[in-house]
Known about the structure:
With 210 residues, the protein is α/β, with parallel strands linked by helices. The chain is 46% helix and 16% strand.
Amino acid sequence: MKNIILVEGKDDKALIEYLSTDCKVNNIAGLNNLLIELTKIKGSFPKTPYQKIGIILDQDTITKAERLTFINECLQQVFGVQLLDTEMFVDLVIEEIPLRIACYFVNVNGKGEIETILRLIKNHQSRNADCLEQWQNCLTEKLSQKEFDKLWVYNYLKYDTATHQERQQAGTYCTLEYSLQHKNIWDFDSPVLDELKGFLALFEIEHITK
């Protein structure tokens, strides 16, 4: 049986697939689709069962407790179970098949998202992206940290690490997915990734054949 990890967006999917080769990773296209995706997974049993389900969401600016409450509302409605904490499995049985579920919230010091991590693990000069700080200071209405981090990563990929030719086809060559596969612009040994790697390790203890 396979393990599956649910993530919020395409960049989350690209990073998690790069870090975890043994798991199927599904982009649910927004946390509000979590309930729908969990319902689909339950409906796939026993024909297409999973051994473990991982849920990775951005913590953003809310508390860990608030994010856990949201996940537990979904899990309670679909599976009739709740998680006591992040990075801890809850066990249940569906159609006589054991299933384990756990979650993790992407954060740096209790808040943030994938882009927050990416800013901290860049290992290439980021002169153009860093200029956004000065631009932000000129704005009457400031961007939120979430908006700023996304814009910073976009500029890092397009203007600091891409060639002129690549920028002409930015949709293909100036993406996180492309950079992960073809460029050395991220430091994957950074301790910023330790928590996330630790969670992913919970799904790789047993080798799973895709």
